[in-house]
Design a protein that fits this description.
With about 450 residues, the chain is mainly alpha-helical. Helices cover about 60% and strands about 5% of the residues. The strands form two sheets. The chain has a three-stranded antiparallel β-sheet. Strands 2-3 form a two-stranded antiparallel ribbon. The protein is elongated.
Length: about 450
Amino acid sequence: MVDLQAPNVKSLKHPRQITTYIKQQREMALSLLKTTLRPEAASTVFGASMDALLSESASRMNSINFAAVMTSSAQVWAAAQDSHTERGHAGVQKRPEALYRRCVQSLQPLLEEMSAWAISSVFWSSITLRLDPDAAVPGMGKDLAAKFVQLTDADKEDQRPNALSCVTMLEALTRMGHSAETTQVAEAICLRMYSLLQSTDQQTCPTAKECADVLSALRELKHAPSHDVASAMLDHLVAMCRSPGLEPTALDINSCLFACAELGLSASSTSTSVLLKRLLEMPVARVDDQDYYHAAWSLAVMGRLDFDTFAAVLSKLSGKRKLSAHKAGTGAARPTQAGATQLYQALEWLKPPQSSEQMEAWSSLRSRLQALAPQPPPMQAFVPGQAMLKAALATHGLPLNAGTPCGMYYADAVLFPHDSSAPVVLLVLDHSGDHVINVPSR
C-alpha cells in the first residue's frame, strides 16, 4: 500500500502550498485506485491524510483550501465507489461524513471571503457525497446560495463566477430540489451568463458546452431564462457551429433544442436550422440515438419540424442501425420505447388534414418509421386528485372518462357536455413531462 501522507504536514505554511498538497494527495489516491484490489483502503488512507491536514494546518487554511479538501474527498469517494462496483463488490463505500462536517463548520466563519468557485465546489461535493451542509451548520446552504448570488454582481470582475462555476452550481441545484433560493440563484446565473456572453475575451467567454449545460440545467429546474438571455446563448451556440475546433457536440445541440422545447423558449428558424444542420452533418458514429430522438421531438414542439427534416432524421437512424448491426454481427437494434414514442409523437405533430395533398408524403414517413420501430402504446400517467376532480365534475352533470387514448397520448380526462358540443380534452402536463400542440385543422 502506498502511503499518501506527506512526511511533514506542519511544514505547509502557505495556503498555496496546502492547495498543492491536497491536489497531490488526490492524484495519488486516484492513481492508486486503478491498481489496488481494495478501493476502500485507498480512500481511507486519503481521508486520513486530509484529517491530519485539518488537525495540523486548519488555522493556516483559507476557504479555497477547505473547498479543495471537500472536492477532492468527493472525487476520491466517487472513484472508489465506481471501482468497488466494477469489481463486483456489494455495498456502498463509507462516505467521509466527519471530514465533510469539519470542512463545512470551518467555512462558516470564512463565508464572506468565499469565492464563487469555492461555493460551487461545496455544492458539488454535497450532491456527490449526498450530504447536506445544513446538517453540519443549520442554514449554511441558504447562506452559501445567497453569497453566490451576491458574487454574480460583485464590483470586481475577477470576483464574479466564471461560466464553469455557473454550470457547476446549476447542476448541483438540479439534484438538491427546488426552493426559493434555487430560483434566485438560477436567475442570477442567467444574468451572469448574459454578461459573460458579451465578453470579447475568448478565455472568459462561455464554451458551447457551458451554454448547453446551463440550458439543460435550467430545463431540469423548469426555470425559463428571459428572451434576451436565451437568445444570447442560442446565438453563441450558432456562432460556435462556424468556429473550427469550438463546435458544439451532438449532446450540446440536443441539450439546447430540448431545453427550448420544454421551457417554451423562442428560437429563431435560423438558429434551429444551423444547429440541426450541424447535427445532421456529424458522422452517425459520433451521435447517440437519443440525440436524434430529442432533436425531432423538440423541433416538433417548437413548430419547426418539416417533412424533409424528419426524413433526414429517419435516414440517420437507419444508418446507425446498419452500422451497429455490422459491428455486432447481429440484427440491428431498434429504438428504445422512449425514443420510439418521441419519434411517433413528432410524426403525429406533422400529420396534415386528411384532405391534404401532403397526406401521401406523411404516410410514407410513417411507413419508414414503422420499419424502424413499432408504435408504442400511449403513455398513461397517474393523475393526482383524479377522484376529487371526477366527483366535483359529477356535481355539474359532467361525466368524466379518464385514461382515454388521444393520438399518442392518454388524455387525463375527457368531458362530454350534455348539449352534444365538442368534447373537452383535459391534459395535465406537469406530472408527465409531455407536451401537446393544438393543430387547428384537426
